[in-house]
Amino acid sequence: MALRTDSERERDALIRNISVAVIGVLVVGLAFWAFGVRPAQQKAAEMNAIAADVQEARENGTPDATLLAEESDAATTPAPAKVAFVGDSYTGGSEMDTGKGHRWTDLIAEDLGIAASLHTEGGTGYVATSPDGVNLVVRAGEVRGSDLVVFFSSRNDVAGYDAVREGALKAFEAAEESAPDAKLVVIGPPWVDGNPPPKIRASRDAVKAAAKEVGATFVDPLARGWFAEGKSGLIGSDGVHPTDAGHEYLADKIEPLIRKALK
């Protein structure tokens, strides 16, 4: 076999070096594509989408400062707590008040910044039922997704201790099934002065026992003397339902309970 000349060896070495260099360039290029160009393209696509949203908002007359504020608020503001209120017309309102925005549930929702939902049925209770078959047991099954469920039990329940206790237990169980992670605050039946009749006291005792059985927080308006001061203007001309002033009074009593429960 003929020996290669020096020039041939130099040529072969040059070819090898060029081949290695080409392969290196290809490897670097592929790496750059995998880790640089493709993510950059994705990021560019995201930026283009944001720019399109901003342009659309500008065309609709939204100032840039507002857009920035909305982006910041969305990133830093936690979702409001979801609080469900279950009760009768003391919770849902009556003709004795001036309507939405003036009732104790609305006042508390505004003060605490909560997302409130009402599940009420006038003239009913845990046992007392409307002609359509609705009571607080039915309404308690509507509280899905709530963080806190507040029951304001009813002066309409006069069926006796055993029946009211059983009805209250069904309502609390319906709420727990609908919102398994929710806390329960149970407010006993109210009265318009400091002299509630025996049937209302029995209803209070029944609701208190049911709340204790399920581990709910129980609040006793009778023992705490709600409306017992005899202050005029809190109860309407029907002698039963709270006025706007009465709803403000209830908000002052109930808001601290909700604030504590949400901690």
Automatic annotation (TrEMBL):
SGNH hydrolase-type esterase domain ranges (all copies): 85-248
Keywords from the named record: Membrane, Transmembrane, Transmembrane helix
A Pfam family reported for this protein in Swiss-Prot or TrEMBL: Lipase_GDSL_2
Transmembrane domains' residue ranges: 14-35
Gene3D superfamilies the UniProt entry points to: SGNH hydrolase
Protein name: SGNH hydrolase-type esterase domain-containing protein
